[in-house]
Amino acid sequence: MDGKSVLITGGTGSFGKAFVRHLLSTTSVSRLVVFSRDELKQSEMAAQYEKEPRIRFFIGDVRDYGRLERAFDGVDIVVHAAALKQVPAVEYNPIEAVRTNINGAENIINAALDRDVKRVIALSTDKASSPINLYGATKLVSDKLFVNGNAYVGGRVSRFSVVRYGNVMGSRGSVVPFFKRLVAEGARKIPITDERMTRFSITLPQSVKFVVDSLSRMKGGELFVPKIPSLRVTELAQVIAPNAEFEHVGIRPGEKLHEEMISTDDARRTVDMGDHYVIQPQTEWWNRRGGIGGSPVASDFSYSSDKNTHWLSPDELAVMLKEM
Ligand SMILES: NC(=O)c1ccc[n+]([C@@H]2O[C@H](COP(=O)([O-])OP(=O)(O)OC[C@H]3O[C@@H](n4cnc5c(N)ncnc54)[C@H](OP(=O)(O)O)[C@@H]3O)[C@@H](O)[C@H]2O)c1
Q1: Which terminal residue of the chain, N or C, has fewer Cβ atoms less than 10 Å from its own Cβ?
Q2: Number of other residues whose CB lies within 10 A of the CB of residue 6
Q3: Atom number, ligand 1, closest to the C-alpha of residue 37
């Protein structure tokens, strides 16, 4: 990162703010551009960085190619975090998700190629593996656009990779702030969709570190998946609201009982790299590059939140919630 010009789309979101904080406090980036639509979120963030000469704020929409092309001028590294990601809102407004998550991805790739951006990492989600809701489906299309963006590079310098992970503890719109709000309002009952429900869990600092590490490792074409723990939603609710009863509200449309990051079909192309997995592209150009090492996973392998070998205990959950 040192000396590099970095741009983050969705820089005012949960991930973006943590990424900006991390880069400005631990690296010598020469310039850090926050790209997003809403001027209020940007001006609130700018107020926190009044004395930071390296940060720039750029209002723009990833649906607007021309704006991205202007923003990417002189940029070395792009992290693409902008997305529509609330499952119910995306189900109800499907074409909006297509425009932001799919057309936006295409614009990022084209602008990066045209502006000679060297490395681009796009953030993906466990919901993109065997998707059952439109959010996951649009992110799967986005993943494929980024991986195959490498096929259009020709003699250019740009490389594209994807990072896929599960629920970020405490991010905007996630279950932790929701449960905490209910407790603060004095609710006696906590809504639980299904007692069997499990989720992958990662903290914001862990997700930022994994993205930064992936930026330094990437050759272009990898889909990086961190090894992260699972949690039982009932245990999370009990830690946040120990005295509350559960109210069973049933699984919501587009929701899975368990999330998955690597399906059995993707396992054929997956290698275990120690602390993370890489799903490799199934393409000629990737085969010609000679691979990245690692050990192939078993052919019946899948990485899902219910079959995980690493679980967060209630004590660990309590510590994580306290640290947030
Ligand atoms: N949070 C999680 O649990 C989780 C888990 C796995 C993966 N991810 C992925 O991580 C990424 C970041 O998530 P997050 O939790 O940080 O989301 P977030 O808090 O909702 O932030 C989204 C950001 O994107 C911007 N944005 C939305 N639409 C845009 C557009 N059309 N053009 C430009 N900017 C736009 C938003 O700002 P404006 O509204 O002002 O434009 C905001 O800065 C997403 O790609 C998400 O799919 C998140």
Answers
A1: C
A2: 23
A3: 41
Burial class (CB in 10 A: 0-12, 13-18, 19+), 56: middle
On average, the pLDDT of the chain sits at 95
Kindly give the distance from the C-alpha atom of residue 2 to the centroid of ligand 1, in angstroms, as a whole number. 25
- The residue to mutate among 14, 34, 162, having the most atoms of ligand 1 within 8 angstroms of its beta carbon, is 14
Q: How many CA atoms lie within 13 A of 162 on its CB side?
A: 28
Residue with CA closest to ligand 1 atom 21:
13
Residues 74 and 114: their CA atoms lie apart, in Å, by 11
Q: 83 C-alpha vs ligand 1 centroid, how far in Å?
A: 4
Q: Is 127 a catalytic residue?
A: yes
Q: How many CB atoms lie within 10 A of CB 19?
A: 25
Angle between helices 104-114 and 134-149 (to 10 degrees): 20
Segments making up each domain of the chain, as ranges: 5-166+204-227+264-302
- Count CB-CB contacts under 10 A for residue 68: 26
Tokens of 268: 């054929």
pLDDT tens digits for range 257-315: 999 999 999 999 999 999 999 999 999 889 888 889 999 999 999 999 999 999 999 99
Say yes or no: CB of residue 97 within 6 Å of ligand 1. Answer: no
Beta bridge partners of 168: 202
Tokens 């009044």 correspond to 50
CATH class assigned to 5-166+204-227+264-302? alpha beta
